[in-house]
Design brief:
This is Excinuclease ATPase subunit. This protein is α+β, with helices and mostly antiparallel strands. It has 4 helices and 6 strands; from the N terminus they run αβααββαβββ.
């Protein structure tokens, strides 16, 4: 009997580990997140953002490409809610870096989750798990 109980407990724990190891790729609308109440509150309107191949003026100065990788607590949140929050954190980091380097825009922003490029003008890619969500972005810091 003890062997059966031990076996059941071991299998249950293995199943729980598998559940916590979820790492789904989620694609979320960029404009919807940027225009949300949190987006308006958190982001710097003085640093312009251009995603994927969006057209922009020719840069007067270029700093170079930067990458940011952010994680957030996803426990008891929908994938979209957790991904939106961590996306804003990643965008804010790009904007802060642009300001620090004396520039006013980030162009060619692409998702870079697990070093996999995903370029879109409309959506970003997020890794959504049971307890953690993550967004990695890369973009070129420039002065327009």
């Amino acid at each position: 009997m003890k062997v059966v109980v031990t076996l059941i407990l071991a299998l249950s724990m293995f199943g729980m580990q598998s559940a916590f190891a979820r790492d789904d790729l989620v694609h979320v609308n960029i404009k919807q997140v940027l225009n949300s109440a949190d987006g308006v509150k958190v982001l710097n309107p003085d640093v312009k953002l251009f995603f994927g191949e969006q057209t922009h003026a020719t840069p007067a100065k270029t700093f170079g490409e930067v990458v940011t990788n952010k994680k957030t607590n996803a426990f008891a949140k929908s994938d979209e809610e957790a991904c939106a929050w961590v996306f804003l954190s990643a965008i804010k980091a790009l904007q802060q870096r642009a300001v620090k380097e004396g520039h006013n825009a980030v162009v060619g922003i692409t998702s870079y989750y697990k070093k996999r490029s995903y370029s879109s003008e409309e959506k970003f890619e997020c890794g959504a798990g049971t307890v953690i969500a993550g967004v990695a972005l890369k973009g070129m810091i420039v002065s327009l």
